[in-house]
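Known limitations

Files may contain more than one protein. Parsers should not assume a single record per file. Below, a two-record file is shown to illustrate correct handling: read the sequence, read the token line, then continue until end of file.
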Amino acid sequence: MSYSVEEIISSLSKSTSLLTVLVEGKDDALVYRCIEDKLNALVSIDNKADIFICGGRLDLIEIFESREKFKNTKVVFLADKDMWFFEGVPREYEDIVFTDGYSIENDAYVESVFNNLLSKDDNKIFENLIKELSVWFAFEVNRYKETGDSKCDVSVDRICPNNVFCPDFKKSINFVDPPQDLVDLICTEYTRALRGKNLFQALLRFLHKNTFSYHTLLTLGAKLENPKIDMLINRLSSKFQEYG
């Protein structure tokens, strides 16, 4: 069930002892539920923390900007950095807890575990695929920097159907070479800087035969020992402690 911004604000305005973590979208609900469980396991949290999923990033920002309407309710906001990963979070939103990487999927990606699931040959092909995807994504990041717009919601199967950047797809997006330093940054920091959904799609290209699924890997990344997820949880906990 989805709620409007007005309905969420109205709900948050009601007196409650619950601790609320407002997050972006339902697509990542499995990760958020794991975070909720781990957050509630912390000794420093006296009351139950509840994840509340809103309609998306724009809705979350709008609710955050209306927080004076529910200032007596203990609410912490958790959001993906998205393109702010490359540009920095605006000062007015520094009270929001943001992911370390581009998105929550990036934080759930445990490189030391997932990459070891690949065979030696597949690992080499995977690394080359990441390089190809980094060129595409650098183009989109650069387009965002220049125009404020990007078209990132594209599957790996369209971008690199044969593990190389598809010439026809390049034409369809009017591709031009992005700055090399941006390509290098994304490729070097791919677990943090490459769009998380594409990162998991790339990995699954080699693991689908082992019956792994997107949701299985995402849940594993959130449940396993994961410093990035632990850091998010500690930051959420610290934000709740600020309420006293």
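...continuing to the second record:
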Amino acid sequence: MIALLCMAAGGAAAQSVKLKANEIEALLSGNTVVGKWDGTTYRQFFDADGTTIFAQDGMRSALGQWRIDPERDEYQSIWPRDAAWEGWYVMEYAGDYFWVSKKTPPTPFAVVEGQQLVNTEQENPFCGQISRFAEHLDSTETTVTVDVDFPDTPHATCSRSIATGGAQSVHCSWPFAYRSVAARQNFDTLLLNLAQCFDKGITVSSGQGVNHPDSYDLRLFTSDKAAITASLKDKGALQQTFVFLRAESLR
């Protein structure tokens, strides 16, 4: 741990301290870390239930898991595409906190209380996309083009419709292989990002299903203007699974 020793060598009055397992858990659990990773600002929330959300400027949020190794006094995390848990020590030096590992030089971060994934000083890019998506409700165009897409997936197929009662809606769909991991991962990513765009007073409906081999998972988010629905649907006859995003005017 040569890098750790170097932190203490710069001044006689301050020494780096490696946090113990219970100290790391108390520091992170229920709070948000803010810092820079590879030169890009990020925010990461550590839920007490062991889930963690990583949000980086210009990128979609990711959902992972975190834990503390009491024997190593180490923070560890794992993400959907990871093969194994990866760990970091947490160091404190002159009142500042640092991530440190054999691969990571001392990387500073700050801790803010509670879940504060959205920087209130600047717009969340995904929320801006959702706002523009809902704006299509006021459009008279029959063809809809939206910039809400997922990495490494086909572009969405989108359209508008008007219900019998006059309510307008715009909806997009992304096709995936039947019950594929990619479909679930992209659906979970969509939910994570939608949850950052709405207040806590969202309505959630999940776990609903129909007869096998068709099933679906549906979540509903409401704003002053529209109801935003995200759903994951298995279509056995087509041997495909679809992620749907729908905005419907509240009339």
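Parsers that stop after the first record will miss the second one. For reference, the second record is described as follows. The chain has four helices and 14 strands.
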